[in-house]
Amino acid sequence: MEEVFEKVGTEVVFDFELFGNQIIINNTEFITVLVTFALIILAALLKRKLKPDNPGKIQVCVEWLVEIVNNLCKTSAGHHGKVFVPYIGTLLVYLSAANIIALLNFIPGLHIYPPTKDINVTATFAIITIIVVIVAGLRVKGLKGWAKTFIDPMPVVAPFKLLEYITKPLSLALRLFGNIFASFIIMEMIFSVVPIPFLSSPFSAYFDIFDGILQAFIFTYLTIVYIGEAVE
């Protein structure tokens, strides 16, 4: 258990001096940047191989994912949903990749953990999301129309509607962090008892893949629901 909980904390990966300032990069920051660049490179490679007339299996899967995001945005935000497709799509793909990156630990010598097990990462995504929600409301309704939503249907509800802009990102951050953190702890305990990858792979299929993608989808779905509420 001591070894398991030692992996929960952040570890320094790089420590160097730049222009007289000490720069410290921990494992959470390193993996976050690693996932970002990996997805950028993957997107660039997929874009170069697009074939409108004769799509391959990978392109069909990508188009299927895009269609899911389009339908999700259209259902929740109506005709305004198209504007938010790039953000929602990026959010879904990034969180899914970040949540399941622990699968690489099956390669001997690698110690890569999901950055979403760090509350700072999930809180950042939640803050970005609530900013997008506010901007969406202002863009569609204008400042006056957006302000009126706080007193609809009666002024007495204004404090509660203001409180939502705190509780919504808080619940988003804690839900994602709690589930990924719990899955990480459980998998590390399983690995310590069953160190053979073949025997522990069924557990990894659930806690790393299924739960990771599920939590990414829940975060994304709630995001577009909140956007839909802001623009309706």
Describe this structure in words.
The chain is mostly helical. It has seven helices and two strands. Strands 1-2 form a two-stranded antiparallel ribbon. The radius of gyration is 20 Å and the shape is globular.
Which helices and strands, and how do they pair?
Blueprint: H1 2-6, E1 12-18, E2 21-26, H2 27-48, H3 57-77, H4 85-100, H5 119-148, H6 158-193, H7 197-231
Antiparallel strand pairs: 1-2
Helix pairs in contact: 2-4, 3-7, 4-7, 5-6, 5-7, 6-7
Put the structure in a nutshell.
With 232 residues, this protein is mainly alpha-helical.
Number of domains: 1
Mean pLDDT: 83
Percent of residues in helices comes to over 70%
List the total number of helices: 7
Characteristics of this structure?
232 residues, mainly alpha, two-stranded antiparallel sheet
